[in-house]
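Aim 2 progress. For Iron ABC transporter permease, the working sequence is reproduced below.
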Amino acid sequence: MAGWLRSGRRRAAGIAAGLALLLVCMMGSLLFGVHTYRLEQLWTAYADFAGTNEQLILRTSRVPRTLIAAFVGACLAVAGCVMQVLTKNPLASPSVFGVNSGASLLIVIGLTAYGSSMSMVNMVWVAFVGAGAAAACVLVLGLGIGGRFDPIRLTLAGAAFAAFASSATSGLILLNKQSLDAALLWMIGSVSGRKLEHLAAVLPYMAAGLLLAMLLSASLNVMALGDDNARSLGQRLGLVRLLAAAAVVLLAGSSVAAAGPIAFVGLVVPHLCRSLVGNDHRWLLPYCALTGAILLVAADTVSRLILMPKEVPVGVATAIIGVPFLIRAARGRSHE
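Predicted structure tokens for this construct:
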């Protein structure tokens, strides 16, 4: 599958157009919502800060949620693309590694133990630890005979762990109803109420995951040809798979920690980008990062405008987009 943009010049132009579109979406996210602001107000919020309500909202709410949406969208999309190669499953997404369920379980355990005294920053770290531990368990369970990596076993192990963690999470919420509201707000997936320190806590892991995924792009191209072909071309499959799994854990774990388990971004975006640039991961991964950021920033902006003055969590908005796509892809029309 070559994609619509077949030449390097067109693909580079597509990157430039995507960056421009992302900038427009981010400006829209910063300026529009329950309260609408002007560009000059955004400028003075930093250049001439006077502590007004408008400036405080822009600096402490709009800017953090826009930046977090962009980074989380990029990371989830790249993680989904890597997962689809790693598992040889075109419907794979970061949830296959159990990161969503593991993070949710540990968050609920933390809320049960500490209640309202648990800060958002602490929730970020607890979620990241839970996501990483869950992914490690799934990787161990997914190893085949002789320690070989088995994509089918990995998918089944992820599904089994997700079912177990979801049941345990539901049980804890029923036993401790005081944690219900806080847990549900986080588990739906939202970038509302986040601050820059939440992004700063996970940004190093996001950057490391993105860099590792980009460095593996050529190896992912070889891996996509099949195990036998990859070995004949000198590919060290075990090492590449381990590094790819590490990239997914860093990307998905940090994203879930920052914004909760936002669904379908990692599923939808790689398919859309393949229709543009084909299966060359040297172009596909950057396109996924850019498109994922655009999608989540735009979805967050729309989600706050639908039912004003109330807001719809962005996780609900992405689910509305993703469910029809999942049905279409499962029927075999959207993937090779």
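DSSP finds 14 helices and no strands in the chain. This observation will guide construct design in the next reporting period.
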